[in-house]
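step 4 of 6: structure.
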Amino acid sequence: MKSIVCIKRVPDSETRVTIAPDGRSLDSSGVKYVMNPYDEIALEEALARKDAAGEGSVTVVTLGPEAAKDTLRSALAMGADEALLLRADPPADGLVVARALADALREREFDLLLFGKQAIDDDNMQVPAMVAELLELPCATVVTGLEIENGHVTARREVEGGHEVVEFDLPGVIATQKGLNKPRHPSVRGIMMAKKKPLEERDVELEASGLEVLELTPPPPRPAPEIVGEGAEAVPELVRRLREEARVL
Amino acid sequence: MATILAVAESRAGELRPVSREVVATARRLADELGAEVEALVLGAPGVQGGATALAEAGADRILVAEDEAFGLYAPDAAVRAVQERCEATECVVVLFAATAQGKDLSARCAARLGRSLATEVTEVAIDGGVPVVVRPQYAGKAYARIRMPSAPALISLRPNVFAAGGVSAGRGEVEALALDAGMPRTRVTAFETGERERLDVAEASIVVSGGRGMQGPENWKLLEDLVDALGPKATLGASRAVVDAGWRPHGEQVGQTGKVVSPGLYFAVGISGAIQHLAGMRTAGVIVAINRDPEAPIFNVANYGLVGDAFEIVPKLAEEIRAIRS
Ligand SMILES: Cc1cc2nc3c(=O)[nH]c(=O)nc-3n(C[C@H](O)[C@H](O)[C@H](O)COP(=O)(O)OP(=O)(O)OC[C@H]3O[C@@H](n4cnc5c(N)ncnc54)[C@H](O)[C@@H]3O)c2cc1C
Ligand SMILES: Nc1ncnc2c1ncn2[C@@H]1O[C@H](COP(=O)(O)O)[C@@H](O)[C@H]1O
């Protein structure tokens, strides 16, 4: 099976977000970047299937700045066979990203196209289903269970109140959710081998975005916190406050 | 006439409550734009009964496509329906609920229509005739204000944030929509509920979340009892630490790698308040923290904090709440 995994370089989830002087973007100074955690799950899924089958290939693709090569290299170190960098600064508009990825993917052959369910910077949850639609492929998002037999996919997809079972025939698209597998860490040998693996790169022209970011602000402040009291004795006072002050009971 | 399309959601022939939030928000925008509201409902036969009630939430036209195949999410047919309606009307905004289904469908529609999408929006307004939305990014650590100049603007609304009422009723003309379920590329073949009958953590208006401070899965009966005392709108949530430990199912996890919730009332019991947990609940209306460590970071976001042992506080809380409810 040939798999392609789309991965994104994102700020680590521990990042303290400070707003850049333009008032519309993240101040990236001092930010530590990592592979989007959901994309690690997508990559693990592709690698584990290749390991189990003893054949096949795994290609990783990212649309990102020059520095996103680090993310591709860590994917190669985890075990991917080859990498493609589409060099451009990814905009907040998922459709622009999806179109650029779809254009690059159209030239390639694959059975399974994997994504993370969500990039933890823009939190868009858009790109996987968009790429699927643009390539006219079937797609299951938020996948926590995956079986593939004779080219037929049965995926479990997390929804409110339970799971949906989604079925389709390959080629197709999967966007992975936590719980599907446990991503591996790159081994020292993997890191050494990664240096010899092919990494193709090219600049891409992005279309104009349909979203105009006017400003980026810190979250609205929460009301001043208050300690109501200590221990079980303070419970009646808490309940009174919830009823009379907050009116939520 | 300009139209706002509100995409409703149903399961097994029942309209999902979040649909009213979507339609009522469409109504508010339509009033400002002098537009009309069209609600789109796909569902199993019988869904029309519930769909009619969307008139009260502000729908002028209610288009209903009934088919056994629409008892479950039918992405390909739904995309086609949205596309057809956008082409048949002068559609300026398409609103979805930011549910698992709405997020999947809205992204497909955006690609099909070639229009941009704003996901999980928490505010929407009209400025100079153009929708302007606010949405959290970086797990809620920043909020972006975004202008969406190209029509139709596709927007998904975070559940529980927008009011489901308080608008004038619409004309409520119900029309059947002929929609062929066809031979879809993607087939949803089953829906399986979790073991519990409780509401999903993303849908409940009261959430009681437990963390590692609960010390073991056997102690969840205390939290379950509190949920029962709070009534049918309450449900259980969990921190990642307890999900990773296997004490609770992943479906209950609140946070960056779990669900984002916005209930009116959120109890964090024995949860320290790590940044990734806060990402999932900081837009809750009222946050109550119960923790024996007065320095726990959860107290920085809590409206009300109780310092002490959850094993003493939680049973007392359930008892007091039962007392005021009876
Ligand atoms: C990439 C990434 C993603 C993550 N995603 C999530 C996520 O989605 N959701 C999430 O929750 N976490 C997430 N985490 C984990 C997060 O960083 C924390 O580790 C986790 O939230 C801690 O869970 P906790 O508060 O239950 O446990 P702890 O941090 O161990 O806190 C337990 C608390 O219980 C209190 N306590 C102990 N005994 C009692 C008692 N008897 N009565 C009252 N209080 C008591 C303690 O004082 C302490 O504050 C993520 C981490 C990473 C790196
Ligand atoms: N710039 C990008 N390059 C490669 N893959 C991406 C990019 N942006 C998003 N993706 C993929 O799409 C998924 C969902 O992203 P998003 O729609 O931005 O939340 C991510 O988990 C990645 O798999």
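step 5 of 6: annotate
 - Chain B is about 25% helix and 30% strand.
 - Residues A 6-8, 36, 38-39, 42, 62-64, 90, 94, 97, 115-116, 118-119, 122, 124-128 surround adenosine monophosphate (ligand 2) (CB under 6 Å).
step 6 of 6: archive
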